[in-house]
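G., the chain you wanted modeled:
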Amino acid sequence: MLNIAVKAARRAGAIINRASQDIGTLTVKSKNFNDFVSEVDVAAERAIIDTLKDAYPTHGFLGEESGSTSHQSDFIWIIDPLDGTTNFLHGFPQYCVSIALQHKGEITQAVIYEPNRNDLYTATKGRGAFLNDKRIRVSKCDKLQESLIGTGFPFRDFKHLDTYLGMFKSMLQKTSGLRRPGSAALDLAYVANGSLDGFGVKGCVTWSKDPVRNYRDYKATNFALAELSWLWSLNRGIITPPGLDEQWLISLAHTQNEIDVLVDDFRALATALRN
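Predicted structure as tokens:
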């Protein structure tokens, strides 16, 4: 299955590389404020799905642009055909193709292809990760003050921008540097390769009785329950950012003890809700 995913990623990468030669002629649409999709995103995703579907016609797909299909399959391909579209549209060479296979709720195969450099990151559960067929490992850095950390900043919703800036200020003073290149999939690949020592952004808990597979599902999240979870934690001495999509905040500034407190608090809330 990994070989087919690699074939699909390279097909998408070829489409992206051709389009990068004449970006000015592309048709670009806005999905939301500061969130763009081009005809390249759509064409690359179609090439990926066609390649995978030819090999695995019964599998399901969850695409960044096309949404989800075949929810009943045990195998779901999760696809971002062009992670870093804004970078691509500006000729900033930091974007990639991202493909993962989920089997019965567990990720078992993954491919990240960086067409600019022709770099191919692959991983199979239990068999390690590779860059261009060479084994890669995470950084050995274990001191925060010596680490180079990747992160992300808000680009659509700025209601908690001050919180992010506070995080940035704190972490900038505790690390050797922060980077926000604009492609989270590549950032995570760089962590796997040891180029970055870590990657951190705000966490997200979606309150829904149904799986959240696309933006429409996400917008149907139960906001009242999200607000309840915030109040629950607040009454127990845990202050998290209020809001539908930014309840959790875990970073290298937190110790394992603090993470355990947050997890135990969430477990207690889940138990109370069930009862």
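The first helix runs from residue 2 to 20.

Shout if anything looks off.
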